[in-house]
Amino acid sequence: MSRQTRANITERKTRLDGSVVDFTCEPLVVEPGRRALLRYVTDREWRIGDVDLRVPVGAVTIGHFWVDRSYNVYHWLVNGRTLAYYCSIATDTAIAPDLVSYLDLTVDVLIRPTGETTVLDEEELPPDLAPPHRILIARAREALLVNPKALIREIEASSASVSRL
């Protein structure tokens, strides 16, 4: 079984330091200028910070992207079951037929299937981060923490609508 399927779209993450990371994904839903759902199968194990979470090789990620939200959500699934939701605070998300790009603002929020949340990587923010980015991060963080179970329901329904995990 191949890790990725034949159709491709690039997910491009630009970090605050200007470095760029590209991921080759399968497009599931692409509505240019609005939203996208992308599928990616992990090719290596990912360990998540100090929260004792391991995303194994072969886990399926359904990435949820919106141009009008200040975060992206990665729905991690192992054998069809939710492992976690990894919310990456971001800005400048752009969605085109062949590319989803965004500026990663470093801070992430991990949401467990129970609704338990953990804020990650705040200590990595540069001290000279522009005030508008700090405000955006604070607002996105609050949006993610205020009602994680509602976000879980939305992501589960959206992922299920494209399910062939």
Layout of helices and strands, plus pairs?
Elements: E1 9-14, E2 20-31, E3 35-41, E4 46-48, E5 53-55, E6 60-66, E7 71-78, E8 81-96, E9 99-111, E10 117-120, H1 131-146, H2 148-161
Parallel strand pairs: 1-9
Antiparallel strand pairs: 1-2, 2-3, 3-6, 4-5, 6-7, 7-8, 8-9, 9-10
What separation lies between the terminal Cα atoms?
13 Å
Strand order of the largest sheet: 1-2-3-6-7-8-9
Question: What is the radius of gyration computed over CA atoms, rounded to a whole number of angstroms?
Answer: 15 Å
Indicate the low-confidence ranges by residue numbers: 1-5
Name the features:
165 residues, alpha+beta, FomD barrel-like fold, seven-stranded mixed beta barrel, two-stranded antiparallel ribbon, 2 helices, 10 strands, 18% helix, disordered N terminus
Quick take:
The protein is 18% helix and 48% strand. Strand 9 (99-111) and strand 10 form a beta hairpin. With 165 residues, the chain is of the alpha+beta class.
Task: Give a description of the structure.
It is a single chain. This protein starts with 8 loop residues before the first strand and ends with a helix. The chain has 165 residues and is of the alpha+beta class. The model is unreliable at 1-5 (pLDDT under 50). It has a 7-stranded mixed barrel. It has a two-stranded antiparallel sheet with strand order 4-5. It contains 2 helices and 10 strands, in the order E-E-E-E-E-E-E-E-E-E-H-H. The chain has a single domain (9-161), classed as FomD barrel-like fold (Beta Barrel), CATH 2.40.380.
